[in-house]
Write a structure and sequence with these properties.
Length: 180
């Protein structure tokens, strides 16, 4: 008796889960605040300082999770990576708090832009969610980061929409409520 081919993926998922669990438990540990809310808190209360020392382990765990097909989306890990890179660069360059928070926002915008091939969404995400304000100074930096990220991603992955291939057509007007 031969098992269906789809069942062969189950051991791979289990192994990937064990490896990710080990990485998180051993190298990342418990964080009081994490995710986008942690980035927002760091911008509002800590001047954009994020604990970037754990970033390589978070990147590895995220890549394994996404690569194995875990039900995590690319947005949160991407935003964490982008924001942490911005915080790390700003910290290493000894930038003032206002510039550091701007780099965190730029990293977040570039992450959303790359993850979804949507630079405008990345800009508004960074300005509204991460910074919580709109100024001409922050707008220019965040737009530049999102556009560069989008251009690079399109050069590597192509300019096709990330959610492309979804075509819906109404057979008759009575189907319209089903789309609402």
């Amino acid at each position: 008796m031969e098992l269906p081919r789809e069942l062969g993926i189950i051991p791979m998922l289990i192994i990937a889960g064990v490896i990710v669990g080990f990485i998180v438990k051993r190298f990342v540990g418990h964080e009081k605040v994490h995710g986008v809310s942690g980035i927002m808190e760091a911008v509002a209360l800590a001047g954009g300082r994020l604990p970037y020392m754990k970033m390589p382990f978070k990147i590895l765990a995220s890549a394994l999770s996404l690569g194995a097909g875990a039900s995590v989306g690319p947005e949160d890990p991407s935003v964490q990576i982008g924001a942490n890179l911005g915080s790390m660069v700003g910290h290493k360059l000894h930038l003032k708090e206002e510039h550091l928070t701007l780099l965190v926002a730029a990293g977040s915008a570039s992450a959303i832009s790359a993850a979804f091939n949507a630079p405008i969404a990345g800009v508004f995400f960074a300005l509204e969610v991460i910074l919580g304000e709109f100024s001409s100074r922050s707008f220019g930096v965040v737009v530049l980061a999102a556009v560069i990220s989008s251009a690079f991603t399109q050069g590597v992955r192509g300019a096709n929409p990330i959610f492309g291939g979804l075509h819906f057509a109404l057979g008759n007007p009575t189907q319209l409520p089903l789309y609402a």
